[in-house]
From TrEMBL:
Domain Methyltransferase type as annotated: residue spans: 3-109
Keyword Nucleotidyltransferase: no
Name by which UniProt lists this protein: eEF1A lysine and N-terminal methyltransferase
Stretches the record annotates as Disordered: 380-400
GO terms classed as biological process: methylation
Organism of provenance: Ciconia maguari
Keywords assigned by UniProt, alphabetized: Methyltransferase, Multifunctional enzyme, Transferase
Domain of life: Eukaryota
Taxon lineage: Eukaryota, Metazoa, Chordata, Craniata, Vertebrata
Length: 636
C-alpha cells in the first residue's frame, strides 16, 4: 500500500499504476478542486487507486497502515523558510508520516535538496533511528531537463532503540553502483551541495565560454580524497572547426607544479598552442594509484564530457593529449607530519626527458614545491663487468638515489646565488673568505651550493623546524661540517641576539623562509621578517659592503608596495630581480650607497665568478647563474 502526500495534479501516481509498479495507491491533498479533478481524470480507468481530501498534518488513517509514503516536492513546498512556525508544521508532517508507516516501510521524498530542507529531514529521521539514504536520480547529464540535480531521500523506518544508537547515513550518487556511508548530517549536506554546484557549473559551461579558468576536484569513490584536479580553459582566439572544439590534457605525475601546467597563464598558453577552443587539463594526485593512460581515459571519459563546450557536434570524438604519451613517474619516498610545517612528503618525480628530481612538498600548499634537487644517474664503476643476461635489469622507471649537489633546480635560488656578485673586494668570489647566513633550510640546496662552490665560505643556517634538518640530511644529501652549521632557532630570535652581541659579521644574509599563515597575501617571508625594526637588526649584523638577499613571494600588490617601501627606508640600495613565470621576486639590498658598483666592473666580477666556478674538479655548468649575474648588471 502506497500513500502519496500532497499529490496535486501530478501524473506520477497514474504512471506508476499504468506501468504495473503498484495499484493500491492512496493520494491525498488539501485542495478540494485538485482532488475532484484527479478523481475525474482517473475515474474507472484505475479502480484500485483513490484520491481523498485530507490534511497530511492530521491524517485519518490508522497507525502502521502503509508500506510506502511518497512525497514529490511537498516537503520543498512546505519548508520554505526556517521560521519557528514552519519548522513546527514540518515536525507534524514527519510525525504523521512516521505514524502511518509500518516498521520496515519507506518514506520516499523527491526534492531539490536545499541545504536547510535536507538537514531538517536527515536530522529528524536519523534521530528517530531510521536509516537515511540520499539518491541523486537526475543530474548534470540531464542538461535539457534539469539545471539543478534532483534527489530522492529514502528513509527506512526502524524501531527506535533506547540510548545512543548509531546513525546510518548514506549518499548514492548517480554514477556509482553502491552508496557511500557518511558520518554526520553536515557531511551529507556538504556532499549534496558539491553535486549541486557541479551541476550548475556544467550547465553554465554548456551554454557559454568561461571567461575565467574553472577548477574542480573529482574525488575517489572509496576514500573521498581528491583523485583528479581539472582546470577548464577556454581559448576565445581559436577559430572553431569540427575537430578542434574540445580536448583533454593529462599532466604527467609530478609535473603539475611546472609553470606551463600549474599557473593560469601557463595553462592559457598550453590551450592556445594545442589549438582547441576548450582544453581541460587533468592533474593526478600523489595519494592515488593509476594503472595507465588508457585506464585514466576510461575513468574520465564520461565525466569530462559533462564539461564540453557549447556547439560540440554530436558523437564528436574528443582527443586525450599528454606529454610523451605516458602518465609520468611519482614515487613517494617519505611522508610525515611536523608540528610546525604540518603534513609533508618527499617524492621522486620524472621530469622532462630522462632526468629525475626529488621534491619536498608541504601538503597544506600541495601545488608549491618547497625544495627540489636533481638526482644523479648511476655511473658504472671503472672496470665493472657487464651484467649477465640472466640478471634482473633495473626498472627504467626506478629513479636514481644520489643527489646532484652541483645543480640548482629552483630559479629563485639561482638568482640569489647570482646576487653574491654584488659583493665588493679584490679576491675572486669562489676563493674569498665569505661569512654567509641563510635563514630557512628546506631541503638544504641553497646553503649546500654556497658551501660547495665558495671554497672558503663559512655558512650558518637558521631553521625553526627540527624536522626539516632531518629531511635535508636524510633525503637531500645535506651535511654539517667545519664550514656549515645549522642552528635550530626562530630566525627572528637568532638575528636579534646577533644584533645585540656581534654586529657587522656577515658578508651575505639570505632569507628563504616560508610563512605558515596562508591567510596573508605574502607566502614568503612571514610578515614579521620585513618589519622595519627587524630589518634594522639585519642591517646591524651585515657588513657595510655586504648584501642582504630576500626571496619575496607576495600576491597582494598593496602589501608588496609596503614591504618595498620599508626595505628602502632601511637599505639605501635596493635591486629587484623578477623570476619569469613565477610570483617570486629576489631583492638585493645593500646597507651603504658606497656599495653602488659600476656596471662594467660588476659584469667583469660576474665573469670572474663564472670562470672560477668552471675550474677543474667543479663538474658544473654555471651558465644559468651567469645569466642572472648579467641580469643584475642590467638592473644596475
Amino acid at each position: 500500500q502506497v500513500l502519496v502526500v500532497g499529490c496535486g495534479n501530478s501524473e506520477l501516481s497514474e504512471q506508476m499504476y499504468d506501468m504495473g509498479m503498484c495499484e493500491d495507491i492512496v493520494n491525498i491533498d488539501i485542495s478540494d478542486a485538485v482532488i475532484r479533478q484527479m478523481q475525474e481524470r482517473s475515474g474507472s480507468k484505475r479502480p484500485k487507486m483513490s484520491y481523498l481530501l485530507m490534511d497530511m498534518l492530521q491524517m485519518d488513517f490508522p497507525d502502521a497502515h502503509f508500506q510506502v509514503v511518497l512525497d514529490k516536492g511537498t516537503l520543498d513546498a512546505i519548508l520554505t523558510d526556517e521560521k519557528e512556525a514552519t519548522l513546527a508544521k514540518v515536525d507534524r508532517m514527519f510525525a504523521e508520516i512516521s505514524r502511518v508507516l509500518q516498521v520496515g516501510g519507506r518514506y520516499f521524498c523527491v526534492s531539490l535538496a536545499q541545504a536547510y530542507v535536507l538537514k531538517k529531514a536527515v536530522e529528524y529521521f536519523s534521530q528517530e533511528g531510521w536509516v537515511v539514504r540520499v539518491h541523486q536520480v537526475a543530474g548534470s547529464g540531464d542538461k535539457q531537463q534539469f539545471v539543478l540535480p534532483v534527489f530522492v531521500y529514502v528513509m527506512t523506518k526502524f524501531r527506535k532503540i533506547p540510548g545512543a544508537a548509531p546513525q546510518i547515513l548514506e549518499i548514492f550518487p548517480e554514477e556509482q553502483d553502491k552508496p557511500t556511508r557518511v558520518e554526520s548530517a553536515e557531511q551529507l549536506v556538504a556532499a549534496v551541495k558539491d553535486r549541486q554546484h557541479y551541476a550548475l557549473l556544467c550547465s553554465q559551461l554548456s551554454k557559454t565560454p568561461c571567461g575565467e579558468q574553472v577548477s574542480l576536484d573529482l574525488c575517489d569513490k572509496e576514500s573521498g580524497r581528491p583523485r583528479y584536479t581539472l582546470h577548464v580553459v577556454d581559448s576565445p582566439l581559436v577559430k572553431p572547426s569540427r575537430d578542434n572544439h574540445f580536448a583533454i590534457f593529462i599532466i604527467p605525475q609530478g609535473r603539475e607544479t611546472e609553470w606551463l601546467f600549474g599557473t593560469e597563464e601557463g595553462r592559457r598558453q598550453l590551450a592556445a598552442s594545442a589549438g582547441f577552443g576548450r582544453l581541460v587539463t587533468v592533474a593526478l594526485h600523489r595519494e592515488q594509484h593509476y594503472e595507465s593512460m588508457a585506464g585514466i581515459q576510461a575513468e574520465l571519459s564520461g565525466k569530462v564530457m559533462e564539461l564540453a563546450p557549447p556547439g560540440l557536434p554530436a558523437r564528436q570524438q574528443v582527443p586525450f593529449l599528454s606529454v610523451g604519451g605516458d602518465i609520468g613517474v611519482r614515487t613517494v619516498r617519505h611522508r610525515d607530519t611536523s608540528p610546525l610545517s604540518g603534513e609533508y612528503v618527499v617524492e621522486d618525480v620524472k621530469g622532462d626527458g630522462t632526468c629525475y628530481f626529488r621534491r619536498l612538498i608541504f601538503l597544506r600548499n600541495r601545488n608549491v614545491v618547497q625544495s627540489e634537487a636533481r638526482l644523479l644517474a648511476p655511473v658504472p664503476l671503472s672496470g665493472q663487468k657487464k651484467r649477465r643476461k640472466d640478471k634482473k635489469k633495473p626498472s627504467p622507471t626506478e629513479p636514481p638515489a644520489a643527489i646532484d649537489k652541483s645543480y640548482l633546480c629552483c630559479e629563485h635560488h639561482k638568482a640569489m646565488v647570482a646576487g653574491l656578485c654584488l659583493l665588493g673586494g679584490p679576491d675572486p668570489l669562489p676563493g674569498a673568505l665569505l661569512a654567509v647566513l641563510v635563514v630557512g633550510l628546506g631541503g638544504g640546496s641553497l646553503p649546500l651550493f654556497v658551501h660547495d662552490y665558495f671554497s672558503e665560505a663559512r655558512v650558518a643556517v637558521v631553521e625553526i623546524d627540527p624536522s626539516m634538518l632531518e629531511v635535508a640530511t636524510r633525503w637531500f644529501g645535506f651535511s654539517q661540517g667545519d664550514r656549515m652549521q645549522v642552528h635550530i632557532s626562530d630566525g627572528l630570535d637568532y638575528v636579534a641576539k646577533l644584533a645585540a652581541e656581534a654586529p657587522a659579521q656577515y658578508d651575505a644574509i639570505m632569507f628563504d623562509v616560508d610563512s605558515k599563515d596562508l591567510t596573508v597575501g605574502m607566502s614568503c617571508p612571514p610578515p614579521a621578517f620585513v618589519e622595519k625594526a627587524f630589518l634594522q637588526k639585519v642591517k646591524t649584523i651585515l657588513k657595510p659592503e655586504g648584501v642582504f638577499v630576500l626571496n619575496l613571494v607576495c600576491r597582494d600588490a598593496r602589501l608588496k608596495d609596503s614591504v618595498l617601501a620599508t626595505l628602502r627606508e632601511v637599505f639605501p640600495l635596493l635591486y629587484a630581480r623578477r623570476i619569469e613565470g613565477e610570483v617570486n621576486e629576489i631583492l638585493f639590498c645593500q646597507p651603504s650607497p658606497k656599495g653602488r658598483q659600476d656596471p662594467t666592473e660588476l659584469g667583469a666580477r660576474a665573469r670572474v665568478l663564472e670562470g672560477a666556478l668552471r675550474q677543474p674538479g667543479r663538474p658544473w655548468d654555471s651558465s644559468y647563474v651567469l645569466a642572472d649575474m648579467l641580469q643584475a648588471v642590467k638592473i644596475l
